[in-house]
Amino acid sequence: MTTPRPQGELSVERMCALAGVSRAGYYRYFQASAPRQEETGARDAIQRIALENRHYGYRRIAVQLLREGLLVNHKRVLGIMRQDNLLCLRKRPFVPLTTMSRRVVPNLARGLIVSDVDQLWVADITYVRLLEEFIYLAVVLDAFSRRVIGWALDDHLQASLAVAALKMALEARRPQPGSLIHHSDRGIQYACTDYTAVLAQHDIQPSMSRVGNPYDNAKAESFMKTLKQEEIDGRDYRDIDEARRHIGDFIEQTYNRQRLHSALGYRPPVEFEANLPSHGAAAQQPRATLTATCP
Q1: How much is the pTM?
Q2: Is the pLDDT of residue 215 over 80?
Q3: To 10 degrees, what angle do helices 74-83 and 58-67 make?
Q4: Which residues lie below 8 Å from residue 60, measured CB to CB, with a gap of 6+?
């Protein structure tokens, strides 16, 4: 009778003898079966991540696999995704024109290199299509961490929409006076007295893009593109309440806390900010002024 022993104490030779097989046969079987098991595990993980994150490309999936302890080359991930038809939806949306202000302030963000959060905020407004109408989303992002720190959704393009998003950002961050630049496009909502008064009250320097140059506000434009591709374009919202619920969940949970950002070393914004040292104040610059009539 054989005394039970832990498997780790048995040599390959002893296990083969107990099983009645040759060592050569064991190694032939191992070399044939191990790659199949590894391939199955990798394919299963890739399919799971792709289905949970419908708009992740092969590079983000490869990084997510690494975060889960699986080292899979990104080219291999691409090959498996092609074989399994795990494609990402990409849709170019129709963009209606918005009102532009003729009154602008200098572009203080152009060429600016930020080194911490709350040095440069970027703001933008986009539309969301419902079944029978448009609604509008205003956002404010921290340019350093890409985190959405303020947002508001409503059925109008009045200045109060942008002001609501700005006030949410101010309540969440409470930036030091004189340390922050606020950059936006030339929308009248950002140029009017109601909005600029809030900026002045918190000693925030306004900045605006050049005429017809979306690259000056690229970080905000990039977020809007991501939002459209990964949330809005895949849904048909019944009404503004449903849109607010789904878009808010995407912003607060998916984008800020889960989505891997290539510019942040493939980390979510909340995680990126949590690993930053103590925040320093940005250098102060002369403030621009403007007045305009709010819509």
Answers
A1: 0.71
A2: no
A3: 120
A4: 53, 260, 262, 266
CATH topology for 120-274 is Nucleotidyltransferase; domain 5 (3.30.420)
State the chain's maximal CA–CA distance in angstroms.
96
pLDDT digits (tens, 9 = 90+) for 148-197: 999 999 999 899 999 999 999 999 999 999 999 999 988 889 999 999 99
Of 199, 193, 197, 192, the residue nearest 169 (C-alpha): 199
SS3 percent helix, strand, coil of the chain, rounded to 5, is 45, 15, 40
Mean pLDDT of 208-218: 74
Beta strands in 100-253 (DSSP E): 120-129, 134-142, 148-154, 181-184, 205-208
CB atoms within 10 A of CB 253: 13
CA atoms within 13 A on the CB side of 40: 5
Give the list of residues 6+ apart from residue 144 with CB closer than 8 angstroms, or none. 114, 115, 116, 117, 118, 119, 120
Determine the average pLDDT of the residues in 28-34: 67
Q: How far apart are CA 27 and CA 30, in angstroms?
A: 5
Query: Which pLDDT does position 39 carry in this prediction?
Result: 80
CA angle 122, 89, 165 (to 5 degrees): 25
**Calpha distance 61→53 (Å, rounded):** 9
For the chain, domain boundaries? 7-83, 120-274
Residue pair 165/154 in contact by the 8 Å Cβ criterion: no
Q: What is the mean pLDDT of residues 136-140?
A: 96
| CA–CA gap between residue 169 and residue 174 (Å, rounded) | 8
